[in-house]
Specification:
Elements: H1 22-49, E1 55-64, E2 67-71, E3 76-79, E4 95-106, E5 109-115, H2 119-129, H3 131-135, E6 138-146, E7 150-157, H4 164-169, H5 174-182, E8 187-192, H6 197-204, E9 212-216, E10 221-226, H7 231-235, H8 240-249, E11 252-257, H9 258-283, E12 309-310, E13 316-317, H10 337-340, H11 351-357, E14 364-365, E15 371-372
């Protein structure tokens, strides 16, 4: 017994049980080691359970199938194939920054699952590289990411006079470049967040220029009109730009070119005009003919003088004279065409015709115009 022991202290005394054999000693050793492992696992679990969603750094220890095992120091983490960036290639001994997704307690100890494609990895990298984000002056409103290819980040300032986009990009892009290098060359677009949905959607489709945005709140659909020359830029490679913009804003985005939107507008206007005209025709009552006023009706029909009509064979057709009944005492008169027709102008006879008309010597003419030979005298 120690002479300087105080009240309440614990004293350890080595004692050997009298009937302790080899088997009992081995069993005691295993129990003690098991309790030590359990205590160690419990400490590791408590240490990393509070770090879910944070960044941890590890070394690539080994690569098995599609899984990569990282050495975190006191424990080991696994990087599944689904959480890897598609354009990254890993090698043993490589140092990686990963996002801690899940800490699970198993019979073999705590199991840590990490990720290189989760949006929280990008959020934590911004907090590490941008002090304004870490201090809360600049807020990351939303993040849309396709790991290894491209990401979009919407930022907003909590204080007046702060440029959130400039804070994240940094002088000459030094801050954003460090994040790009950490993610293996992944492109990052930093856009301004706006409480107006239309303005936010237009900003999310950058670098493309937006002409107009029409919102359908019921179906959560936004129709965006883009200039014809920037249509491919707004859609992006394999629809990547518009897909990320839809994830960032939470709206389903329908992109149309300016020419297509104009054609649809004209067709819609024509259809609306036709519908309006049909509705007016259906609503208007059938008009009844107005009653003729007796004062406007003449007692006798007007008689127009008939004009002679030229015939096709060169003659004139006598005009039709309206028949007027005469008195019974008068006798009917017979009228001939010669009395009605006006004699036409006569053409002057030429000299040759005059010569032909002159008779020869010794020839006489009958009244009917038949030439007679002179009878010889006996």
């Amino acid at each position: 017994v120690k002479p300087d022991v105080q009240i309440g202290e614990t004293i350890m005394i080595e004692a050997t049980p009298p009937n302790a054999g080899r088997i009992a000693a081995q069993t005691a050793k295993q129990v003690i080691l098991q309790r030590l492992h359990e205590a160690e696992h419990s400490a590791i679990f408590e240490e990393y359970a509070d770090k879910e969603g944070d960044i941890v750094t590890g070394l690539v220890q080994r690569i098995e199938s599609r899984q990569i095992f990282l050495d975190l120091g006191r424990t080991e983490a696994v990087l599944p194939g689904a959480e890897q960036a598609h354009n990254e290639r890993y090698r043993v001994g490589q140092r990686l920054k990963v996002c801690l997704l899940e800490v699970a307690q198993t019979s073999r100890g705590p199991q840590l699952v990490v990720s290189r494609s989760h949006p929280n990895l990008l959020r934590r990298l911004f907090e590490l590289e941008v002090p304004e984000v870490f201090n809360g002056i600049v807020e990351l409103k939303s993040i849309a990411r396709e790991a290894g290819y491209r990401s979009k980040v919407a930022v907003a300032a909590r204080q007046d006079g702060i440029d959130p986009v400039g804070c994240c990009v940094g002088l000459r892009g030094i801050r954003i470049q460090n994040i790009v290098n950490e993610l293996g060359g992944e492109k990052i677009d930093v856009v301004m967040w706006n409480p107006s949905a239309a303005a936010f959607i237009a900003s999310a489709l950058s670098p493309a220029q937006v002409l107009s945005v029409e919102l359908n709140d019921e179906e959560k659909v936004a129709t965006v009109v883009i200039p014809d020359k920037q249509l491919s830029l707004a859609i992006g490679k394999e629809g990547q730009n518009v897909r990320l913009a839809a994830k960032l804003t939470g709206w389903r985005i329908d992109i149309k070119s300016a020419s297509t939107a104009e054609e649809e507008r004209v067709a819609k206007a024509e259809l609306l005009t036709e519908t309006t005209e049909e509705a007016i025709v259906e609503e208007s009552p059938a008009r009844t003919p107005d009653a003729m006023e007796p004062a406007l009706v003449s007692a006798k029909p007007l008689e127009e003088a008939a004009e002679p009509l030229p015939a096709t064979d060169g003659t004139f057709i006598p005009p039709q004279v309206p028949f007027e009944p005469q008195a019974a005492a008068e006798k009917p008169q017979v009228r001939f065409a010669e009395d009605i027709l006006v004699p036409g102008p006569t053409k002057p006879e030429t000299k040759s015709k005059k010569r032909k008309k002159k008779g020869t010597k010794g020839e006489g003419r009958a009244e009917d115009g038949i030439r007679l030979k002179k009878q010889p005298s006996h």
